[in-house]
Amino acid sequence: MTFERGYQIFVRTAYIAGIAIIIIFLPFSKYILSIGMWTVSGAWILERVNLTKFTGFFTTGSLFRRIALGFPYTLMLWFESIGKGFRVFFRNKPAMILASLYLLHILGLFFTSDFGYAFKDLRTKAPMLILPIFFATSKAFGRSDFYRFMMIFVMNLVVVTLANTWKLFNFEFIDIRDISGHISHIILGLMISMALFVAGYFLFRKKRTSLWIKSAAFLIIVWFLIYLVISRSFTGLGVFVVTLFILLIIYTFRSRSIWLKAGCIFSIIVLLVSGGLYLRSVIRDYYRVETVDYSKLEKISPRGNPYTHNLLSKQTENGHYLWIYVQWDELREGWSKRSRIPFDSTDLKGQQVKFTLIRYLSSMGYRKDAEGIEKLTNEDIEAIERGIPDVVNLNRLSLRGRIYELLMGYETYLESGDPTGSSLMQRLEFWKASRGIILEHWLTGVGTGDMNQAFMEQYEKMKTKLSSEQWWRSHNQYFSILIGFGVFGLGWFLISLIYPAWVKRGFEDYFFLSFFIIAMVSMLTEDTLESQAGVSFFYFFFSFLLFGRREQDPL
What is the pLDDT of residues 412-440, one digit of tens each? Predict the structure, then answer.
């Protein structure tokens, strides 16, 4: 094997290893993810080094010259290699437009005052620039290599979800979202949604797939769906369902087969009807309230203490009124005998224990007195300590508890105006704040680094009842871009994503279209590109699926 051939194999192996590291550690660690980025960067630079110049310099001339000038000369060759790479990149218009969103963030520096945060944001979003450059200027992968990368992605997520499930069933968490570790549970949910469609391709669409691969794909799909339910990844599950729904519609219009059209239409109808009936059933059960004759409410507990009955409050938990049959002294005394957490302190989620206790007792139909506490099992006490307010939430295989939480948050918001503690109501408050900032800065935005400051000022202006610890940003990527860079920035953002996909015919490819829908739908309720994990996930798959492979997989 010649030196040149060995060098090429080494560089290509390093490039592949870097991509594999990125894929494997996307759901694990942003630090090792950075190592993958650096590995790909190094391989990208070495790929274009002029070996003739390099070997010529180090095999001719005096030893002193080679030692004294070796490093500067090597450095010069590296810069020359970078220049070659950028010349190829500048000839690739779709890749340039995709990476131009990073330029938008640089231009946003002209409208910012917090340069510390702005430069931190630019470091976080470096994948916007480097990943399109790498994939658009390096040798693309064939179909078999691409499938291997996708299998690594899927199997890696199987390992991650199994590890998270171990934490879940061993209660190694305070908030269920903590089981995802260093990555946002929402970004992990989006990755799982993507993996579901990858597995679905091997199950339904790929020809000449062995039976064991199809069987494995089927089991993986079932497992991922179960995981999304037990981990209560409402966003991941919702994005998957919406993406599947949109793909079915697209298949319906594109298919020439009458039977396939009929099957798609039938599947769409089944999805809509079954989802609607389930949601209707849950909402009906939630608002089905026990019949109480207020004139016959007992005033004294079995232990001779007076009950408190708030007849004005209509708040319920699992169909039972919260604020009747409450005996505070008995609750305090009974709780102190069952738990080490003080009655007037907070549970592991930071909620007041006494209110979590009242909600839990109500959800079981128990009175809020000593006898009610005595009926609780040790599992119930542990659940209350962990901040679980409703016995329905103990069932990990049901979405009912999550929907109940949303409805409870809505009721609390209507009654008190405080959205704290309800993810849905908090998002409405985030969007309300976003609207106020957009109306004031719709033309130029607030700049790359001033978004946090703008939100703090807007929340104060609104006199929001939302806890100051949750004065977060918009949780809507389109709002975030509009707030940061104005209406023209939003237009640039949309063009930078749609134009490259249109020119490269990405919308005709199964994998890219699935990913694109997942990403764009997620941006309605999340700041998908505002974290390193999110921006790395988005730009890696966008660039890899569009520029990193030679053949597409048509719809």
Answer: 777 777 777 677 788 888 888 899 999 98
Residue 112 and residue 265: Cα distance in Å, rounded? 50
Tell me, what's the pLDDT at 141?
92
Q: 84 CB contacts (<8 Å, ≥6 apart)?
A: 48
- The three-state secondary structure class of 500 is helix
pLDDT at 155: 93
Any idea which residue has 């790498």 for tokens?
A: 134
CB 199, CB 154: distance < 8 Å: yes
Beta-carbon contacts of 315 under 8 Å, excluding residues fewer than 6 positions away, are 321, 322, 323, 411, 412, 415
- Of residues 154, 174, 178, the one with CA closest to residue 164: 178
User: Packing angle between helix 532-547 and helix 477-503, nearest 10 degrees?
Assistant: 10
Closest CA to 245 of 199, 311, 211, 197: 197
Residues linked to residue 549 through DSSP beta bridges, in sequence order = 141
Distances (CA, A) of 286 to 280, 355, 414, 426: 10, 19, 16, 21
Contact 115, 449 (CB under 8 A): yes
Question: What is the rounded CA–CA span in Å between residue 22 and residue 35?
Answer: 8
DSSP structural state of residue 413: H
Residue 387 DSSP SS3: coil
The string of pLDDT tens digits covering residues 460-484 is: 888 888 777 777 788 899 999 999 9
- Confidence check: pLDDT of 496 > 90: yes
Q: Classify strands 316-317 and 320-321 as parallel, antiparallel or unpaired.
A: antiparallel
Tokens 């007849």 sit at which residue? 311
Q: What whole-number distance in Å separates Cα of residue 249 and Cα of residue 22?
A: 33
Read off the tokens for 220.
């993986």
Long-range contacts of 84-92 (CB under 8 A, 24+ apart): 84/48, 85/44, 85/45, 85/47, 85/48, 85/133, 85/137, 86/133, 88/136, 88/137, 89/132, 89/133, 89/136, 89/137, 92/136, 92/137, 92/547
**Whether 390 contacts 359, CB under 8 Å:** yes
Higher pLDDT, 354 or 290: 354
pLDDT at 241 over 80: yes
CA distance 32 to 113: 32
Residue 336: count other Cβ atoms within 10 Å of its Cβ: 13
CA gyration radius for the chain?
28
Sole residue written with tokens 């007992």? 298
Residue 91, classified by CB atoms within 10 Å of its CB into exposed (0-12), middle (13-18) or buried (19+), is exposed
Indicate whether 3 pLDDT > 90: no
Q: Which residues, 6+ apart, have CB-to-CB distance to 350 below 8 Å?
A: 387
Q: Per the structure block, which two tokens stand in for 323?
A: 């604020």
Q: What's the pLDDT score for residue 207?
A: 67
Q: Which residue shows structure tokens 């080094």?
A: 49
Residues in Cβ contact with 499 at an 8 Å cutoff, skipping those fewer than 6 apart: 94, 97
> Does 222 or 397 have the greater pLDDT score?
222
For the stretch 368-391, pLDDT in tens is 998 999 998 888 888 888 888 888
Output the pLDDT for position 177.
64
What are the CA-CA distances from residue 386 to residues 82, 180, 291 (Å)? 53, 17, 31
